[in-house]
Amino acid sequence: MQAQSRVDVFEQIFLVFLGLGTLVGIVVVTYTLYNAYKYRDDSGRTSDADTPTLGELPTGGEGGKKLFLSFGLSAIIVISLVVWTYGMLLYVEDPGNDIPQEDAIEVDVTGEGFAWFFDYENGASSTSTMTVPENTPVWVNVTGGDVWHTFGISEQRVKADAIPGETDETWFMSGEAGETYEIECFELCGPGHTQMTGTVEVVEQEEFDQFLEEEAPEDEGNSSEGENASDGGNASDGGNTSDGGNATDGGNASDDGNATDSENGTEANASNESNGGDA
Ligand SMILES: [Cu+2]
């Protein structure tokens, strides 16, 4: 089977449902109109033999043949649709070997504080703009840094929960270089929810490689770049700058200073009073 994108799959499901729905609608409405015409009251009725009376069960339908046929056909249509759609959605969940994994790239996505953060395989990172090479399967591992968000790219039929402590995996197929897709947050997450947008930028493979190189962490190892990724982990040690919060303790020191000032003040007053007393 030719590898299909999510867009192809959902378009196909939509068209099949639209087509079958229209077909069934046409059959039902036509049959209804046909019977309305066939059994119309043309006031040429001579016998009331066909008229049902109260409490009488309608006969006809040739021993339930029509009923059986209509129920049977409906069941076949509905069950086939359920099975087929389920199969298509399984493909969307995991395209398996239909999408060659060696061609795919992987991007870690974190939704936090009303922005999207992207980490690439070589340790490169970006904010708000996700750069991807053209015509490539892109696997995204989505998580949340603070509260629940949802990573969504409508144009690519992508929607994945961004929940702290959990990773939701999904994928899409990038298009031609130059295309851009809008990223939105689909989980009401706070006052910055509506501004929590971003862009997917599709670029040529060369440009993408260049982007990775430029954004890569300092060390320029070749195949050991995977280890550099762990250096990126050290970057989170930069979080120690939050120890700078201890600086506020220094602020307490100045409070102490105030306390001594006020003490000095009272002492000074006291000594003034005592001076006054002497006078
Ligand atoms: Cu959000």
Q: In the CATH hierarchy, what is the superfamily of the domain at 101-230? A: Cupredoxins -  blue copper proteins
Classify the helix fraction into a percent range.
Answer: 40-55%
Mean pLDDT metric: 80
The biggest beta sheet is recorded as: 5 strands, mixed
Distance between the termini: 108 Å
Describe the global form: elongated
Number of helices: 5
User: What is the level-2 CATH architecture name of the domain at 101-230?
Assistant: Sandwich
Strand order of the largest sheet: 3-2-1-5-8
Uncertain segments are 220-279
Q: How much strand? A: 15-25%
CATH domain class name of the domain at 101-230: Mainly Beta
* Strand count: 10
Provide the CATH topology of the domain at 101-230.
Immunoglobulin-like
Structural class, judged by helices and strands? alpha+beta
What is Rg? 35 Å
The SSE order reads HHEEEEEEEEEEHHH
Cofactors, ions, other ligands: copper (II) ion
Transmembrane segments: 12-34, 67-92
Family: Belongs to the cytochrome c oxidase subunit 2 family.
Protein name: Cytochrome c oxidase, subunit II
Membrane topology: Multi-pass membrane protein
How are the SSEs ordered, and which strands pair?
Elements: H1 6-38, H2 61-93, E1 105-112, E2 115-120, E3 125-127, E4 129-133, E5 137-144, E6 149-153, E7 158-162, E8 168-173, E9 180-185, E10 198-203, H3 205-215, H4 225-235, H5 247-278
Parallel strand pairs: 1-5, 4-10
Antiparallel strand pairs: 1-2, 2-3, 5-8, 6-7, 6-9, 9-10
Bound molecules: copper (II) ion (CU).
The site of copper (II) ion has 7 residues, from loops.
Biased composition (Polar residues): 223-279
Protein name: Cytochrome c oxidase, subunit II
Organism: Natronococcus jeotgali DSM 18795
